[in-house]
Write a structure and sequence with these properties.
Layout lengths: L1 H40 L6 H9 L12 H10 L12 H12 L9 E5 L43 H5 L5 E4 L2 E4 L9 H5 L5 E5 L14 H7 L9 H5 L5 E4 L2 E4 L9 H5 L7
Antiparallel strand pairs: 1-4, 2-3, 5-6
Length: 274
């Protein structure tokens, strides 16, 4: 009797194990089939050109091209929505490689660099008060006059641009941000972060640039800074290429017209043109 009961119990245990094994196997088979069908149905086709372009791009994901990282730019180029030379970091070399992948002409690529339109360092500009607080240019919008410098259009010198630069191409020197032309890749991050809109991208080979952003009247600018543009128009009058314009007491040089003669720089009484 005991032997029969024991045998029955063993048989039940084996049966339970077999049932569990079958159930687990069936569930696994169902999940596998489901994932296989889903993979086929929702398969994303990979564009070989897009993958090749992504492999050529530098991978900095700086956003200087206007797209969400290198993958976004690669997709746009592959679709014909962006030119082959759209990557500012890769420059002409990368543009040529991408053009070969796409089977198109690379087109002319003009190297650009960031330029800070301010020379008002600690020796050449006045301070209205001593500031002690968070050293972030973006936070200075909440303090009196937008910062301690008398010039409300000048570089604040707390290095928000320095923190954003992925190439270590900009540094604060004596209270003013200065760009290293050779290290700059024109990604535009410093341009975007500057709360004073002092930084712009200019041609690498630009001969002369107005290193000031003040739009105050001449007497007010001179009170605040020794090297600020006062809108005197001497640069405009002496430019043989008609490359200088004056708006709101501020001079601007058209780089496409500029012939690099240096007349504007020579005549500027405040040395605001470099």
């Amino acid at each position: 009797m005991q032997t029969t009961a024991l045998t029955w119990r063993i048989n039940m245990d084996i049966t339970g194990i077999l049932i569990a094994t079958v159930l687990v196997g069936a569930v696994g088979l169902f999940v596998g089939l489901f994932l296989g069908v889903a993979g086929i149905k929702f398969k994303v086709e990979v564009d070989e050109k897009e993958e090749a372009i992504l492999g050529v791009l530098p991978g900095n994901n700086c956003g200087g091209c206007g797209y969400a990282g290198c993958s976004g730019l690669a997709a746009a180029i592959a679709k014909g929505e962006a030119p082959a030379n759209a990557c500012p970091v890769g420059g002409e070399k990368v543009g040529s490689q991408i053009a070969q992948i796409m089977g198109v002409e690379a087109g002319e690529s003009v190297r650009k660099v960031a330029f800070v339109k301010c020379q008002g360092d600690k020796e050449r500009t006045r301070m209205d008060y001593d500031y002690t607080g968070i050293e972030d240019c973006r936070m200075l919008a909440f303090v009196p006059n937008g910062g301690p410098k008398s010039c409300n259009d000048g570089c604040l010198g707390f290095g928000s641009c320095v923190k954003m630069c992925p190439f270590d191409a900009i540094h604060v020197v004596n209270g003013v941000a200065v760009v290293d032309k050779e290290a700059c890749k024109a990604c535009g991050k410093c341009v975007a972060v500057c709360p004073k809109n002092l930084i712009e991208l200019i041609p690498y080979d630009a001969k002369h640039v107005v290193a000031c952003s003040s739009r105050e009247k001449g007497p007010d600018t001179m009170k605040a800074c020794d090297v600020g543009c006062i809108g005197c128009q001497l640069c405009k009058r002496n430019c043989p290429a008609d490359a200088v314009t004056i708006e709101e007491f501020h001079a601007t040089i058209d780089q496409e017209k500029c012939i690099g003669c240096g007349a504007c720089k020579e005549k500027c009484p405040k040395k605001a043109i470099v």
